[in-house]
Write a sequence for this structure.
């Protein structure tokens, strides 16, 4: 079974530029998450989708971050404009729909973003 | 506010030297407690889910246990390949969704 795919793996941009990350979840997983992991910290949720609807985006800095999952499969996370403090690893995870008995989240390899 | 605290931050062991990692949590209604392993440059890898106090799960040299306030990850006779950061996370019933709330992790180094 293929895992969660993410691209690009690495990205370096200057502050005030824009950047986009892509995620393709495990086939059949209705729930998709984007997490931000700053060096030395645990991952922190940015946004959760159930199919193509947003479940939780309470910690997403909406003035600069946006995310979409138009067809309920793959997803894109965008930052515009980027700030120095956005330097982090952006992790995508997926899981079965709640109530289907398996709540584990499976993570992709992440995208390491460096803002200079 | 739901919170997870892991200790120690870093742990150095000799090969074969057993030890335990601690995860203390406060959550409004625990749905599940999760353990993940993260290697440098990679995403977290799922290890265990525990749902209720008294539950235990094992996988190779790892054993996870759960009480009402904390979880332990016991490592028996570790090998150098067990070196990684171990993350603990909780899922609470009062969240809007089903996101995981993570601790900062314990970085384990096992030398031969």
């Amino acid at each position: 079974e293929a895992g969660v795919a993410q691209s690009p793996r690495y990205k370096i941009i200057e502050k005030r530029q824009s950047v986009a990350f892509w995620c393709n979840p495990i086939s059949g997983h209705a729930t998709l998450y984007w997490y931000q992991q700053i060096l030395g910290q645990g991952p922190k949720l940015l946004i959760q989708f159930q199919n193509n609807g947003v479940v939780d985006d309470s910690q997403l800095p909406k003035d600069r971050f946006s995310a979409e999952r138009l067809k309920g499969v793959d997803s894109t996370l965008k930052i515009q404009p980027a700030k120095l403090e956005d330097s982090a690893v952006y992790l995508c995870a997926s899981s079965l729909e709640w109530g289907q008995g398996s709540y584990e989240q499976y993570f992709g390899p992440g995208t390491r973003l460096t803002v200079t | 506010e739901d919170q997870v605290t892991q200790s120690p931050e870093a742990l150095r062991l000799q090969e074969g030297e057993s030890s335990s990692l601690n995860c203390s949590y406060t959550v409004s209604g625990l749905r599940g407690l999760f353990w993940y392993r993260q290697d440098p440059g990679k995403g977290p890898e799922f290890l265990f889910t525990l749902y209720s106090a008294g539950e235990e799960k094992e996988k190779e040299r790892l054993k996870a246990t759960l009480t009402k306030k904390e979880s332990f990850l016991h490592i028996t006779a570790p090998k150098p390949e067990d070196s990684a950061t171990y993350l603990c996370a909780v899922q609470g019933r009062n969240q809007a969704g089903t996101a995981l709330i993570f601790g900062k992790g314990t970085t384990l180094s096992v030398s031969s």
Observations:
- Chain A has no helices and eleven strands.
- The mean pLDDT of chain A is 94.
